[in-house]
From TrEMBL:
InterPro entries reported in the protein's UniProt record: Glycosyltr_41/O-GlcNAc_trsf (IPR051939), OGT/SEC/SPY_C (IPR029489), TPR-like_helical_dom_sf (IPR011990), TPR_rpt (IPR019734)
Pathway: Protein modification; protein glycosylation
Native organism: bacterium (Candidatus Blackallbacteria) CG17_big_fil_post_rev_8_21_14_2_50_48_46
Leader sequence segment: none
Ranges annotated as spanning the membrane: none
Keywords: Glycosyltransferase, Repeat, TPR repeat, Transferase
TPR repeat residue numbers: 32-65, 100-133
Protein name: protein O-GlcNAc transferase
Amino acid sequence: MFSASFPTSDIPVTNQQLAILRETLQRAPEREENWINLGNLLFQMGEYQEAIQLLQEGARKHENSAPLKYNLGYMLEGLQQWPISILCYQAALELNPQFFEAWFRLGEVFRQTNRHTEAVQVFQRAFKLKPDYLPCLQRIVEQLTLCGDSLAVIQAAELFLKEDLETSAWYLGLNAETQKYLSTWIPRLEGLQIFSFFCREEIDTPALMGAIRDFSRRHAEKHYPENLPDRDLNPERKLRIGYLSNEFHSESFYQLHALLFQNQNREKFEYFAYADCPTASVTAETLREYFHSWQEVASLDDEALFKLLSEDQLDLLVDMSGLANPGRLPVLARKPVPLLLISGSNPPFTSGLKVADWLFSDPVLTPPDIAELYPEKIWPSDCFLHWTLPEIPYESGLPPVFERGYITFGSANSINKLSGRCLELWAQILKQVPQSRLCLKTFALDDPVLCQELQAWFLRQGLNPERLMLLGTLPEQPHLPMFYGQIDIALDPFPYNGGLTSFEALWMGVPVISLAGERRVGQSVLTALGFSEWVAQNPQAYLQKAVNLAQDPAQLKALRLSLRPQIEQSVLCDGVAFARERETAYREIWRKYCLASEQNQI
């Protein structure tokens, strides 16, 4: 496989090696590999400026050398000198359009600089040259997801999911390293495909459940155990409870779950955290203190993780990622604990695992007809989401319509949630509300090509692109006041609604219009918070609710002042009540298990 590591090494470089390569270059400067070898050695030694100057000189002397330009670009990429690195890779490709490594590294630079649309195009060129290099397809799917092209994600995933891969002649012909890579990556690929299904209106609940069942059949069923681990069946003893997630490092995870962790009773329960995320963060360090044990498990393979979970003798394991971390579902399928509970938030639906015991949800998100389709039993609560109030010293002022004279609608949801029909309805709303604007904010909009495509799309709908405000990452500015301070009404995307963004908008005094549907995420949140009047039952009602609010600035002004106190007093922001409710559930679930186990032994 092609290595993407930069030319550095822990092996010490001797002065003798350096002298030999200098002499070799001096004797034969007409050989391009002599420039490359010396340059790479200098770079390995940390002599970055000398290495780059040397390759620049070599590239001038060998104008037609694609490898020299590629290696120069590779070094510049390693130093994060992105613009010059791009020029070097492009120059190499002009000389040799079949240069796979140059296409792949160019795609990597576009990926790292949030130019997702160009990254997709470049990775696709690389994939055509080397279709057996699977990281290429991985990058294509990841970048398509970030571009919000859910249909293309589904189609790309089908390249590998259309047959039983592990029994195919192609798979059996791969080396062991590649097969191991595939065994961990294919479930993640299929997870991205299923997430894309959630974002597609034409994928109804039966079809979605079929895809999840197929995933479980391929990756989980062969791991289901014959017996469960033994535990002391005392129903009132101190329980050992674990949480597994690949999102412990993220700020959004903190906002949705810190409320529970902060208020857990660590005298009655012993809590274990398994952080399956590759990067440490301030967020993870903050959460660490709420657990008796904290384990970093991202580097563990499935067997090692299963061994750790088993040895920790947990009574209950709460998986907080579900299909958002599909690569670990085979571990959960082996049932390293007596009771497996699912408490995911993105997506907040079934894990598809037949061995999962309970799913924490609510009656709006999971009504009886949907619950019948899930393998888990449903443990009901007020809402599947709770929210940790932000610590931002910001007071809501007047809605911006009073200063600007026009209404600004907005959404801070990820781009892949903005379906075609959703954007069409938003365009209709803009047409119904004269002079109004639509403000979109998501990190994917750092991509200038994606912004141009959105502007062109709205122009085709007969709308001046100036009515579209596109915001990407603004690291120097607090997200909540910067974004919600300049919009009057938040529009919830569909069919896969926002969750965290609805809390944020309402706390900032901005009403949220949501469309009820088969996913029902927005309806769940708004109903639990007491704002069901903003839930539309069909697109026409959605449009009308948005227009009605836009025509009532006085109501928008009143909501700007009244919404925050309502949110802060909501049970969904009451950490003590939430923790007691959840711990009561843990105890009751354990009691049920003990009783059933004793009855089975009679």
